[in-house]
Amino acid sequence: MKIPPAFLGLSLSLTLLTCYVHGADSATAPASPVISTGQWQHEELKRFPAKEANQGVVADDEYLYVISNVEIGKYRKDTFERVGGWKDAKDGPFIHLNAGLMHEGKLYCAHSNFPGVPMTSSIEIFDPVSMQHIGTHSLGIAPGSLTWIVWHENHWLACFAHYAKNQPKTGRDPSWTELVQYDAEWRRTGGWTFPAGIVEIFGGSSSSGGSITSDGTLFITGHDAKQLFVLKFPTAGSVLKWVDTIPMSAEGQAFSWDPKEPNLFYGIIKKTREVVISRISRKGA
């Protein structure tokens, strides 16, 4: 049967329209999730209860510092005995402590007014020996709620989160989460966003923990996923490159690598108030 030319023209037009629409969808669709490449192995070694295991954990040579919103517990690494701590005074200035790190012999913690708006953030500094609050640096109204900071090659990297629950007030969902680079004086020098696939895994939350290796590899966690994401800085553009996913037994939140045993990983399980100790290493390394 001979197909009329008019019908052929209509068919071609519809085909081109379909290709255009599908092409547009493909251009805006989030990248496919990066599943584990199998290059990493995770082994849980032990876990112990800590009442402060609500936001994260930090390790130094001898102790673990377990962080809650307004409280930090100090535990021995060998016996898990609680040997000290800090707690904000009733009606004190602290609202929402997040991840911490050891820097120049002091405990630095990210802090925000979450879930308040406008979003304000600060860096709070503690003496790990006396467990006293000894310093603060306010960022004022920031690009989001500060969740974690790291020091790398004479500059700071700071993650500012956005949450679905605040979107009606801020107009910004978790895709606005940003990793910002500052110099030593906290002057902004750069910034990156997270891959859309990872933002989907964040759900209505955001990135709760992060660390960086000497070669610039980023490890980050979400709010509650049992996954450690491996990212690289892009060679161009502003979106971090997602290169691997490591399944783990800790459930998101802020984490820490052991300074003496590089493959030893400390995470938490928020709902059971536990610190989880694991070994995470690259196979064959």
UniProtKB/TrEMBL annotation:
Species annotation: Prosthecobacter debontii
Record's keyword terms, sorted: Signal
Signal peptide positions (record): 1-23
Stored SUPFAM superfamilies: Tricorn protease domain 2
Name of this chain's protein: Uncharacterized protein
